[in-house]
Amino acid sequence: MSAGASSVTIAPRLQRSSTHDAHERSEKSRRRIRLSTFAALALYGIVRWATLISPAPGTRLLGLLALAVAVAGLVPLLQRYGTGAMFAAAVALCLLALPVAGLPWQWFVHERIALSAREIGTGLSGLANTLVPYAGPGEAVRLVIVLGAAVLLLDAAIVMAFAPAGFGDARRAGAALPLIALAVVPATLVRPQFPYLQGLVLFALMAAFMWGERVRREAVGTAVVLATLAGVTAAVAAPRLDQHHPWVDYRAWAGAPTNVHVDSFDWNQTYGPLHWPRKGRVVMTVTAKQGDYWKAENLGLFNGYAWVLGTQSVQKPLPPPSRAAVARWTQHIKVTIDGMKTSDVIAAGEARQPTSVPGGVQEGDEPGTWVGQDTLGPGTTYEVSTYSPRPSGTQLAHAGRRYPVGALNTYLTLAFPQVGVPAGVTPQVTFPPFHAASPPLMSEPSFAQNATKYVTSSPYAAAYELARRLAARAATPFAFVTSVERYLAHGYTYNENPPVSTYPLVSFLFSKKTGYCQQFSGTMALLLRMGGVPARVAAGFTSGTEDAGNRWVVTDIDAHAWVEVWFPTYGWVRFDPTPLVAPARGGQTAVPFDKPFLSGSSATAVTPRRDSSSNPSPTHAAHGGSAGGPSPLLIIPALVLLAAIAGLVRALLASAPSPEDLLGELELALARTGRPIGNGVTLVALEHRFRESPGAAGYIRSLRLVRYGGASEGPSAAQRRALREQLGQGLGITGRLRALWALPPHPAVPARRRAGA
Q1: Is there a domain that residue 263 lies in?
Q2: Are residues 369 and 474 both part of a single domain?
Q3: Strands 361-363 and 370-376
Q4: How many CB atoms lie within 10 A of CB 297?
Q5: Are 700 and 723 in contact (CB under 8 A)?
Q6: Per-residue pLDDT reduced to its tens digit, 313-345
Q7: Is residue 40 helix, strand or coil?
Q8: Residue 3 placed within a domain
Q9: Which residues contact 86 (CB under 8 A, 6 or more apart)?
């Protein structure tokens, strides 16, 4: 009886123990699956986040991933010691993210909270004017971008760590959302090369995280098959559903109100982080036969630190340009202000008195510029005749040196600060004309005999020596101008968030060597005046995008600064030393287009251009990589090589393409080389986008004329080759192969005749 009772008593206990052990093993298995799928989704997120910075901070991001996995996996193990222990461990691990993200370890160890907060604040303030992928030297900006990944990773990890045992759908979604943002946010800023494939990968990882631990072992195969079918179906259907325009366009509804954002610009140069609006909003449209740089102001005064509006008094009027030059390069333009308010009458080159300006106008600080009596805002329209010469290099080389010294002294004068000079006094130095034997002169009589010594003991001594050296090697003023341009074209990079310094142009020229249009134009004008060539800085907008009917659409991204140099016979001639990667010069942006453009539509709307690299710089991936180029996990050079070979074989075996074939191929080629596709820009606008390469622009022009203009000859092989070279620029070691895959060689095609039109 006793033995039987004992066996009856012990059996349920063993059964309960076995059930408990099985449940324990099952729970551990679920936790492992949960943690591994969390790590996989987080890893994919940091791979995508890495596209925001060039070069990618891989080690730091992997360190943050390790911290997040530690929070999600290790903190729950401390539950037996109480919530306080879990909380303390989580806080410690989260704090470690600061030095891992790039905050100096010394600041972290010594608790330099104020200094750390200031560094993070500096980075946050610089983000507004930062182009991505960011390749600038600003460590604060890099820190803040990496910290963004840390916040998202640790948010997800904390939800994982403190979620109760019943890890339901709501808590899974709470952990998944930050990781999804980690992968998706970069795609909104830097267009991915293969969005649908990357979307499929994200879907698979998210599905594994959300439902992986629920799938029974025997049903894993079925679940994988079903998920794969769903993902592939979505990836195939997505391109057809994504037509790049809204299914319901609320803006087309009758009576829908529209709010116009109004920008304003301060053209004085500051050389800090660029403060101009950079949202791609249309600020004005110009009707003109010839595109030009639309000038707002001349910055003729260098105050010792920066170029600003104003000049010293002009003693004599400048001689006018020749009648032949005026006749050749004068045009009548019509300006309509759209999304901007300004007191400047924006024109081009030197403008005659505008007509139809509300409230009237008065002369600006310099001849050829005008200021409205009233502020000009959206809806203001006026007309003006402008003279903006574009002589050839040969013409400028033979323009001579007949400088009217009395009239041009203003444009050979610079102010120089120096220690020991009385407060409020910044002596001005007037430099002798190009190759003249006379020494510099000073405006302050007490310094009259020491002008050269004063300059060589100022912060600008090295700049003066450089200007003298470049001028001595040049035979003509034009040769000197081109030598300065060449000097600034090597070793200097474009960056809209440069470091701030006391003497910014000296710092830019000799140490930092990074900046945007203000640094490049200000430095060039400085060197030219020191070398005896009259120069000034001009500010306004580049030409913008040409639309139908000689209409140029100008956005706030086109805001720019350049240099004007005075030459006999021609007057003020424009030079632009800023690299082509600058957004205002057509770089860092791509003209988007879609099906209406391919079908012959002449849409008048212009989609704001995005920060993606199309005219890259060889020095930085932000200016040289494809904007959001494919992740190394998705494409490797061997695959690109095979694709390029396949493209060549296809090209050799294919029959002559029709215009429609070439248009479709062009769209696909831009997509394959990382150029974003958007709405509403015509072939004419795309031609303007490639204006820096005559061959590439000629390819698009020939294609446009064949398809819509009745021409019989299509693009030539040389034009196609030029376009391929442009598509391959900045894509790294595989760039040429990707361009070859995207746009393989074809013979010259008389496309319209072969299409049977």
Answers
A1: no
A2: yes
A3: antiparallel
A4: 25
A5: yes
A6: 555 778 899 999 999 999 999 999 988 999 999
A7: helix
A8: no
A9: 75, 76, 78, 79, 161, 162
pLDDT tens profile 167-203: 566 777 777 888 888 888 887 776 666 666 777 788 7
**Nearest of 279, 275, 271, 267 to residue 344 by alpha carbon:** 267
Is position 11 within any domain? no
DSSP 284: E
Residue with the two structure tokens 């142009």: 505
Q: Could you give phi then psi for residue 222, rounded to 5 degrees?
A: -60, -40
Range of lowest pLDDT (137-146, 395-404, 480-489, 583-592): 583-592
The total of other beta-carbon atoms located within 10 Å of residue 361's CB is 20
Pair 433, 408: CB distance under 8 Å: yes
Question: What is the number of other CB atoms lying within 10 angstroms of the CB of residue 241?
Answer: 8
Question: In this structure, what token pair is assigned to residue 173?
Answer: 């979604």
Residue 361 domain-assigned (yes or no): yes
Tell me the pairing of strands 361-363 and 330-337. Answer: unpaired
Do residues 717 and 624 touch, judged by C-beta distance below 8 A? Answer: no
Q: How far apart are CA 585 and CA 691, in angstroms?
A: 10
- Cis-peptide into 676, omega within 30 deg: no
Does one domain contain both 579 and 695? no
Could you tell me the residue range of the domain that residue 93 belongs to? Answer: 17-241
Q: Are strands 347-348 and 294-299 parallel, antiparallel or unpaired?
A: antiparallel
Question: Rounded CA gap, 79 and 100, in Å?
Answer: 26
- Rounded Cα distance between 66 and 659, Å, is 53
Write phi, then psi, for 262 (nearest 5 degrees): -110, 120
- H or E stretch including 222? helix 220-241
Question: What is the residue-averaged pLDDT of the chain?
Answer: 75
- Tell me how many domains the chain contains: 3
Q: Are 614 and 589 in contact (CB under 8 A)?
A: yes
Residue with tokens 């300004």: 342
